[in-house]
């Protein structure tokens, strides 16, 4: 599979040999035999075969509907491959140049998916060790996607949805629960949706923005099938400021993105910022960059560009003028171009920690620049601490004002020029003493697994960690973790979600079942954490929120 400029999934397939033998079958079961199998039946079952798939497997299945307007529906019954090393690639078309629908790995059952071109290509790649049971999937050729989900009629290969439903497959109920007691079901120029009363937001107008009412609950703010949803993405960035969530860039498995969107809680809808023109500066498309808010806007730094290079640019977006500006162009010191790093505001300065350069070498320096006057970069000297300071990619960093420290958790830790492993360590960098330390405490309880490309935010006195990539070779094939953990920055102790939901939940505290990594998390009003997008074998565009109990953080007015 060509490198398309997004997250670096292992193994990286830079060249795929054409398979020389092609067989055309109409049977209901097609297994892996290191050839391309063409399926023309209206439905059938695809599997890599009985038992474990072979090490070094390179197998293809091409489902051909016979007409370009036909849709191909694929639903998985079983999925188990070596996380991060063995993949099932699914394309909307008949070649590796076709749009990529999913890159599946691990042991979590994927969501159903649809190809719209009349053809769907599945390609199973495995390396030469540790084969697992593989996959079993059923396919069906349809005139309309998901047969319009039972909420519409199929006409000329397009779903015409019943009143109250929308989406390409009529899968979206426009006003869930009729918008509850805090909203009304209204129609606008784009789509029927819930219009919430002041102080509430979400798809069903059930999240109270102010106060602690209904704490300890998860909320669906926006699913990914609406016409008003955020376009799907991973490796993007986000901040919450001026009562809105702002999202820039990312990767959708096929393209690196340069778009800017905002979701204002009062408006309850995603809107794209489109004020640019040929004479307005705008950052190039990028993924794996970092973002943080400051003053009347926010900064972004670094990232992987469409050509695979790593950026060392610092940009500022002014929310009042809706303009970008490029900063520190004349700085004598220029930081490494990196991706997978963090950008953290500390009073009137920005700190860049970690990241990987174009040679996939991890950066061992901390860079700093004034956020008020961003003219000159400097390297932060490290005066002591742990024998091996953390050299990380895909970690999280938060600033804790009470201890005047940066807290860094997780990520991939480089052990040599060739190898890295996933970290489960929490580090503290004291900004006054310039001293690194590894944190251990009484009654020490770590999160279940080391993780990377998770999210970490500060809520009250807790570092709140959600999701991440948690693969442990030969032990755990969960690529996409769905757990949430809380690290108390005073007591130096980890607590899991059940500790708070058991004692403090006032409603439905069910976490999202499907894990993810490469997402973003932002905090609104001190006690609401929004999770945006990410990757779980398929790129996501949904938004969910968790309103933490008062035992974690209180409501506060934020900007």
TrEMBL record:
<dbReference type="Pfam" id="PF01344">
    <property type="entry name" value="Kelch_1"/>
</dbReference>
<feature type="disulfide bond">
    <location>
        <begin position="32"/>
        <end position="59"/>
    </location>
</feature>
<feature type="disulfide bond">
    <location>
        <begin position="175"/>
        <end position="185"/>
    </location>
</feature>
<dbReference type="InterPro" id="IPR035914">
    <property type="entry name" value="Sperma_CUB_dom_sf"/>
</dbReference>
<keyword id="KW-0732">Signal</keyword>
<keyword id="KW-0245">EGF-like domain</keyword>
<keyword id="KW-0880">Kelch repeat</keyword>
<dbReference type="InterPro" id="IPR000742">
    <property type="entry name" value="EGF"/>
</dbReference>
<dbReference type="Pfam" id="PF24981">
    <property type="entry name" value="Beta-prop_ATRN-LZTR1"/>
</dbReference>
<dbReference type="Pfam" id="PF00431">
    <property type="entry name" value="CUB"/>
</dbReference>
<dbReference type="InterPro" id="IPR006652">
    <property type="entry name" value="Kelch_1"/>
</dbReference>
<protein>
    <recommendedName>
        <fullName>CUB domain-containing protein</fullName>
    </recommendedName>
</protein>
<dbReference type="InterPro" id="IPR000859">
    <property type="entry name" value="CUB_dom"/>
</dbReference>
<dbReference type="InterPro" id="IPR015915">
    <property type="entry name" value="Kelch-typ_b-propeller"/>
</dbReference>
<dbReference type="GO" id="GO:0005794">
    <property type="term" value="C:Golgi apparatus"/>
</dbReference>
<feature type="disulfide bond">
    <location>
        <begin position="196"/>
        <end position="205"/>
    </location>
</feature>
<keyword id="KW-1015">Disulfide bond</keyword>
<dbReference type="Pfam" id="PF23106">
    <property type="entry name" value="EGF_Teneurin"/>
</dbReference>
<dbReference type="InterPro" id="IPR051568">
    <property type="entry name" value="LZTR1/Attractin"/>
</dbReference>
<feature type="signal peptide">
    <location>
        <begin position="1"/>
        <end position="27"/>
    </location>
</feature>
<keyword id="KW-0677">Repeat</keyword>
<feature type="domain" description="CUB">
    <location>
        <begin position="32"/>
        <end position="142"/>
    </location>
</feature>
<dbReference type="InterPro" id="IPR056737">
    <property type="entry name" value="Beta-prop_ATRN-MKLN-like"/>
</dbReference>
<feature type="domain" description="EGF-like">
    <location>
        <begin position="171"/>
        <end position="206"/>
    </location>
</feature>
